[in-house]
Amino acid sequence: MESTRVFRPDPRYRTQLAAGVLLVFLLVFAPWALLALIPEIGGAFAAWYLAANAVWVII
Q1: The pTM is what?
Q2: Mean of the pLDDT values across residues 3-20?
Q3: Which one of 2, 14, 50, 52 counts the least CB within 10 Å of its CB?
Q4: Where are the domains of the chain?
């Protein structure tokens, strides 16, 4: 019987992955989320934005 190999990623990879996710969030999602701070469109835009992102994550 063969022993099972366990893959353990390098800790530096986890840091790089976290930095990449943070960068994508700041450049792609955050600017659109900040539009919700505009008083005229804040509530409706925030609801639409969160719903659209929820659908995107599910798909």
Answers
A1: 0.50
A2: 89
A3: 2
A4: 11-58
